[in-house]
């Protein structure tokens, strides 16, 4: 999600400004329910994270399965699903989505890309069995006032061996929010190979703003 303090889009969009001031799940649900109907239109000209995340998945997938099972955690209105549907993986995947906010899920449902869409609070354990997905994506949701780093443990748990996590973390909280340390801890414990933690541009035409975390489950 673009930073409201440093981008024209951020300064002009009242929802984006509120999103960076969130303090917890109740605030988040209220904001995103209000934002759901205009979210895609507000961000579409500038927001690059969904496309860049799908590119990261495609770059690091090590098999050519024709029926990839993807979990999109914090799916919002489904921009990540839209990008998968436009990518070289189209017709080779099914995607499920989880999100805190019913209004955002309703917008995603209307697109007809996701198989299963459910409300979920990602600060709590994910209601999915171990090893049930090939890929977990999480885009724009590991950001200020949203979801903390412990969720990486859950992403790894629901992945099959060899499966990929591709998740964006806002660069300002990558270290201070504890994400770097959780990701490195998973690597040191041998649970994952840390494939990448590269800086990337949340906005089109930019190269900074977020950290693209790619993990492969051991
Ligand atoms: C900036 S949007 C990103 C949505 C989508 N992935 C995208 O890139 O457009 C952040 C999303 O996180 C969701 N969210 C915020 N807190 C959450 C929580 N505790 N559990 C699950 N989802 C949460 C919001 O409802 C919202 O849909």
UniProtKB/TrEMBL annotation:
Segments forming domain Methyltransferase: 70-163
InterPro entries: Methyltransf_25, Methyltransf_Superfamily, SAM-dependent_MTases_sf
PANTHER family from the UniProt entry: METHYLTRANSFERASE (PTHR42912), N6-ADENOSINE-METHYLTRANSFERASE TMT1A (PTHR42912:SF93)
Protein name per its UniProtKB record: Methyltransferase domain-containing protein
Protein source organism: Zasmidium cellare (Wine cellar mold)
């Amino acid at each position: 999600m673009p930073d409201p303090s440093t981008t024209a889009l951020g300064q002009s969009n009242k929802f984006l400004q509120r999103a960076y001031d969130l303090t917890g799940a109740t605030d988040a649900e209220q904001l995103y329910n209000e934002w759901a109907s205009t979210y895609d239109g507000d961000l579409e000209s500038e927001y690059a994270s969904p496309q860049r995340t799908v590119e990261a998945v495609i770059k690091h997938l090590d098999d050519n399965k024709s029926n990839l099972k993807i979990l999109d955690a914090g799916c919002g209105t489904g921009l990540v699903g839209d990008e998968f549907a436009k990518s070289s993986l189209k017709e080779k995947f099914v995607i499920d989505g989880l999100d805190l906010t019913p209004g955002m899920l309703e917008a995603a449902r209307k697109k007809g890309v996701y198989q299963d869409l459910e409300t979920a609070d990602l600060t709590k354990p994910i209601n999915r069995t171990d090893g049930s997905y090939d890929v977990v994506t999480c885009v724009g949701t590991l950001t200020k006032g949203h979801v903390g780093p412990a969720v990486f443990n859950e992403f790894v748990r629901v992945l099959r061996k060899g499966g990929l996590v591709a998740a964006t973390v806002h660069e300002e909280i990558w270290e201070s929010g504890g994400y770097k340390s959780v990701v490195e801890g998973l690597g040191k414990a041998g649970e994952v190979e840390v494939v990448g933690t590269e800086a990337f541009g949340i906005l089109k035409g930019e190269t900074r703003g977020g950290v693209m975390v790619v993990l492969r489950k051991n």
